Amino acid sequence: MDLFKNFADIKAVQKLEQLARTPYNLAASTALSPERLAAYRVSSCGFDFLYGTQRVDAQVMQALQELADQARLVEQFKAMKSGAVMNRIIGYDSEERQVLHTACRDIFTDKPLSPEETAQAKEQLDRLKKFLADLDKGMICNTKGESFTTMVQVGIGGSDLGPRALYLALKRYCQPGRKACFIANVDPDDAAAVLAELDLSRTLINVVSKSGTTLETLTNEELVRSALTAAGLDPARHMIAVTGAGSPMDDPEKYLAAFHMYDYIGGRYSATSMVGGVTLAFALGYENFLELLRGANAADQTGEQDNITENLPLLMALLGIWNRNFLGHNTVAVLPYSQALLRFPAHLQQCDMESNGKQVSRFGESVQWKTGTIVWGEPGTNGQHAFYQLLHQGSEIVPAEFIGFRQSQYQEDITIKGTTSQQKLLANMLAQSLALALGRVHENPNKSFAGNRPSSLLIADRLTPYSMGALLALYENKIALQGFCWNINSFDQEGVQLGKVLANRILSELAEEKEGERLSPDAPELSLIKAAGLEKK
Ligand SMILES: O=P(O)(O)OC[C@H]1O[C@](O)(CO)[C@@H](O)[C@@H]1O
């Protein structure tokens, strides 16, 4: 495909390499002038993005725009949204799929970019709306005629992390008498702890797996089924499913209701499909889920702008590439100053690292440049009392992405010494960004801060379904745009397969399956089973 180009062959890359020899010094006395902080600011889909505390200047910004243009990033993004087969490795066996999670939220126009897929998304939304209405009207209820109050989502990876992060972020908006819980880990204690808290008779179990083959999810499905049976309940009245059309789990007979997602939606990009939709709409209400989609759609539209100062996900992507490929920083910390976003960094870890943790280009060649960044993070201010020491004075420079909101969600606050808790929270976020940039000169070396450490700030008025949807899609789009720039396939995950194969071999051995399927006596799996003390006596 002539849209694909190797990163190293892009002219702007050489220019950026030159510029990276003398990057902007954030610790210089006049570095953070009012003019700079006002100029390095972009507003989009309800967020203000402040990047005056990144190590960029006008020349770098110009070169990053050239990089975007020469790599045809926006064209690739539009091609993705319009249904081009972006999930592929040319010349090799690969998934060969479209990448159309954006179609799930392109539902607010008469002219969606991918009409067929948006029609499928709308069909699923209509079915969900009807299901929820039937629950409200009491047409679907337990055997005693009582309503369901809780939905437990059983799924893992993309079938858990995004939906869970969004639910926790928006719990404030739960409908009265509704809540959601999540079981992901095959660790039986995960399920036991969740189930112990529930009245199963008032609970719906939502089993979510795109492939319908994931070991953890299928195991937990059986575990929950047996818990229902043990409680004298009929699983057929309590269990619903979300799965890929045609997957082994796609058997409506087994479930009270079943919803579909499609192979053109990657697991880690599926939170705005039925994978997130069923649980979120049950707990938060259908209208709030639509608001989330509206916010995500706004971020998808922003991603079509050519100019990096009008295209926030592109700007975020390019600043990340500047830090990764040109300034040589290996990790990025995502630091939400919002307790509700506590699992958002975990979701981004999958979304980003499973997408861009690749070393083969879309031409099937080994890449000669750095790709995916290590993503991690925790909410502030808690993180300040944990790992920020390393951010300020450690030998590793970690670019930080701060996220904050001017107002709290619950609006229950207290003024102490003239400021509210929300102001204290935000003051800390701004202070951290400044401290990283400016540093401090001190005669005692142990008390001095070198500064000149990059960060950016993403600020909106409030964490609502709309702003959460926008935030989610800004990051999803940032990640895809970075993958396009690195010329890697951000939409497959071959790197998770080997571990699954080996786990299955170990499990066959532990299950003492038939002779022909047992491991040979010198197999490393067998030696490790013995060394770990897991051998059957
Ligand atoms: O939804 P599924 O098919 O159960 O997959 C769960 C997760 O497993 C993975 O394939 C990785 O093992 C993820 O990409 C995916 O989100």
From TrEMBL:
It is an enzyme of class 5 (isomerase). Its EC number is 5.3.1.9. InterPro entries: G6P_Isomerase, G6P_Isomerase_C, Phosphoglucose_isomerase_CS, SIS_dom_sf, SIS_PGI_1, SIS_PGI_2. Coiled coil: none annotated. One of its GO terms (cellular component) is cytosol. Pathway: Carbohydrate biosynthesis; gluconeogenesis; Carbohydrate degradation; glycolysis; D-glyceraldehyde 3-phosphate and glycerone phosphate from D-glucose: step 2/4. It catalyses: alpha-D-glucose 6-phosphate = beta-D-fructose 6-phosphate. It comes from the Bacteria. GO terms for biological process: gluconeogenesis; glucose 6-phosphate metabolic process; glycolytic process. It holds the Pfam family PGI. One of its GO terms (molecular function) is carbohydrate derivative binding. The active site is at residues 354, 385, 500. It is found in: Cytoplasm. Keywords: Cytoplasm, Gluconeogenesis, Glycolysis, Isomerase. Belongs to the GPI family. NCBIfam families: PRK14095.1 (NF010695). Catalyzes the reversible isomerization of glucose-6-phosphate to fructose-6-phosphate. This is Glucose-6-phosphate isomerase. It comes from Candidatus Electrothrix marina.
